[in-house]
């Protein structure tokens, strides 16, 4: 889907109907048949004055000003649902809507303060929480297994593990990192991390209004990656995976790439003998938008879950391509207060209700945004005694006896 | 309407602050600087005034690490001109800072006269908020601090200001221009500027760098010792079941004559 993408630098400045139609994806809206599948499948479609179908119609009619000053796209969580359903294969999520969002950012003076803070923190500190970049690798001390940091030991590695923000700073995200370190270690993989030199890959830049921020982070990370020698990049974050896969190639990113879940799935036969502890639970798996809908990894996480002794897998009504977004993409991670103030249903709560209805004890995920989002949603809805949230790698590590 | 905004860099407390081996200054090795938060509000207020009354906004800063980023950001937000005074060094005291700003105002062409000089009413390294009043004193101009709103009259010669007091009390003041104002908060939170605009400003706009004057005033106030807080007493933790803790609380209160 990245083929039609526009390098962000070209998008700076005022957009007119003429220059909009000058972009490949801009021209493509002329093929839209206004069927409305995008609006119907959009999880926040009913909350938008202008859902995607209308936005396309208005752009074609030259009503750019109305689109750019509306707050409709603040509700876009970049979940790829519209793009996945579009019969004309218009890349709404990857290209079209980000182009519009950038204009919204320029034309609307009232950016929600939570989102503003997150974007400013990503620029200054390389993470949305505003934590010190010098503490990014602090979790390594608690890893329980050796984790090599490239700056300290720059020997070539087979795998460069790009840890990412929530997995570095957020305490429950660090559980994911500790589990990943144990699994990589058990598989005998020669891996290293960038440590404090790593910055957010920036996927939420282009998808949440800010191509300039994204370019800055992309240039920074590319320069750091080029300092070291490794054969493959594995990242814990589906959003980073997405950025590396579809956007970094503009800057010459050519490394073989994996997300941890499919990477471990490829090594599953070697891991199986280590999965000896029975977990005895019913698990339902939530497909992450980036990993599932955008990159097609539906089977790998399920394969891993089924390899765990004592795990019974059950599916939610909306699964695979129909999965409902946790609400964290496209900047939604930092718009919860805004959505709540507008009286919208939080998507994470909608999703958790569906998960609880399956009767499962565990909601398994493979995206770093989802642990905090779903754990909060379970608490808000009073289901936190009924169900727990675990990353697939956490469950695998739990099934590995010492 | 010509508005001057003074920016200065202060330590970013996201990084832990350490005392340097001399025991009188901050260790600069891992210290990162950022624009004083209140100065950002002063810039926002200046941009709002420019939008309301027309005119120009000039940003004047003392050079420091990452200062260029801050100045290009100000230009991207809508400032018309950015000037930095180099050679002042990091960690100047407030008197020396005020003196460097005052010298720059007279030495740099087309900086003065201005109608308003806006800066933050306080900084993390100037909690007394002395920078603006010291500068006003040197320039022999009226000064008002903790300002949250500025309205300029039709003649452009006077302004009505809102100043904030403790407990939510506000005062309205009338001041003749030019004047120096210490801004507490702009009328709206500082705006977001897309990074692409900052990057465009870096390519298309210039920061004027001027050397600082050699006449640095002898310091009248100096730091004797800088130290981290030392814990002298610790809280006593009461342990046990809720009932036991409750009776211990009662004992403690009775012991101290509080029951």
Automatic annotation (TrEMBL), chain B:
Lineage: Bacteria, Candidatus Handelsmaniibacteriota
Keywords recorded for this protein, A-Z: Electron transport, Transport
Source organism of the structure: Handelsmanbacteria sp. (strain RIFCSPLOWO2_12_FULL_64_10)
Gene3D superfamilies in the cross-refs: HUPs
Span of domain Electron transfer flavoprotein alpha/beta-subunit N-terminal: 23-219
GO molecular function, one term: electron transfer activity
Family matches, as PANTHER family: ELECTRON TRANSFER FLAVOPROTEIN BETA-SUBUNIT, ELECTRON TRANSFER FLAVOPROTEIN SUBUNIT BETA
InterPro entries, alphabetized: ETF_a/b_N, ETF_b, Rossmann-like_a/b/a_fold
Family in the record: Belongs to the ETF beta-subunit/FixA family.
Name of the protein described by the UniProt record: Electron transfer flavoprotein alpha/beta-subunit N-terminal domain-containing protein
